[in-house]
Amino acid sequence: MPSLFDPIQLGAIHAPNRILMSPLTRGRSTDAHVPTPIMIDYYRQRATAGLIISEGTGISQEGLGWPKAPGLWTDEQVEAWKPITQAVHDAGGRIVTQLWHMGRLSRPDVIGMQPLSASAILAPYNRGPGPNPYAEPRAATLDDLARVLDDFTLAARNALAAGFDGVQLHAANGYLIDQFLRNGTNKRDDQYGGSPENRMRLLGEVVDRLIAELGAGRTSVRLSPNGDSQGADDSDPEAIFVPAAAMLQEKGIAFLEMREQNPTSSFGRTDVPKLSPAIRKVFTSPLILNQDYDLESARADMESGLADGIAFGRPYIANPDLVERLRSGAPLNQPDVKTFYTAGTEGYIDYPALNGPASEQPALQAAE
Ligand SMILES: Cc1cc2nc3c(=O)[nH]c(=O)nc-3n(C[C@H](O)[C@H](O)[C@H](O)COP(=O)(O)O)c2cc1C
């Protein structure tokens, strides 16, 4: 069995190791969702990852209800991404962007309109003090969905123009595509609701649009199949996510990445068993698993053949040279939760690398 440090072909992308950086929203863009120069350093510092998956990146104003998260629908946003992808490439790395429509989790004070979802069901809020910042969404009409598909097409085209190596469709964590997949949030009675086949229709249509722009070898998808995600849940996760994974295999995407929760996780908990064993049977292209991995558990899931690679989230926030640390058994820096989403450089580009401050290592070489 290959190890974390062996190369892997992810569709058209050759990754020199199997350690991926999972998508991490950090809120360092402008109010107009334009990436800022500190993001150049941040991503360059992490260029030894087998593949960087960017933070969730909005496809439209309507779908990006997170303040200071980046977008990919204006020329200004595209231009601001270019030096970021260039810096990663110059440092020997690879980066795809995670395309994001937040659906009912788009805060109305950020998007300036009522958000869309599969059905008009308000998202619950239990992430902190204060009132629920979400609004009851409108059930998307067929015209709305046609526009959303066009927005994904434009964002995919812009991703290529901005220099990304590909895209990851964010179909996880209770956002728009996930709201359509799950029967707790999708109560529609048209061709997008009801049966699993209907609920995964939007996922399939978006993937088709991305493939048309970029090719299947540069198109990937993220799912979070087990348990509640920000209020989105399903009474029978296996019945929707196993066929969805089979459909993605059929479409020939480059890889599928899955965030799987567990009963003790510090990032969303669930007792719902992991679906990766069932999904592995129908998805035979590269399957990347995520959440709560360390070197030992990563090894175990790769040696059993369950995973072809592992995506690390919080460890990548705090360890720009995570590949080297895992390879050498060096201790890991611990991430500071307080600066996950704050503006500025603190807790962002100042985590030290093994050989000194990461910011003083302009030309980190690729690991292999
Ligand atoms: C600060 C922060 C931001 C995140 N942003 C995103 C995001 O933009 N898109 C996404 O799919 N998941 C996002 N996640 C989830 C992570 O990608 C990952 O699934 C989670 O941290 C669990 O992996 P870990 O145990 O390796 O940290 C975020 C998590 C954190 C902690």
Automatic annotation (TrEMBL):
| InterPro entries, sorted | Aldolase_TIM, OxRdtase_FMN_N, Oye-like
Q: Name one GO cellular component term.
A: cytosol
Keywords attached to this entry: Oxidoreductase
Q: Which cofactor does it need?
A: FMN
Q: Which domain of life is it from?
A: Bacteria
GO MF terms, alphabetically ordered: FMN binding; oxidoreductase activity, acting on the CH-CH group of donors, NAD or NADP as acceptor
| Gene3D superfamilies in alphabetical order | Aldolase class I
| NADH:flavin oxidoreductase/NADH oxidase N-terminal domain sequence ranges | 3-333
Entry similarity comment: Belongs to the NADH:flavin oxidoreductase/NADH oxidase family.
Its recorded name reads NADH:flavin oxidoreductase/NADH oxidase N-terminal domain-containing protein
Give the organism, scientific name: Sphingomonas aerophila
The organism's lineage?
Bacteria, Pseudomonadati, Pseudomonadota, Alphaproteobacteria, Sphingomonadales
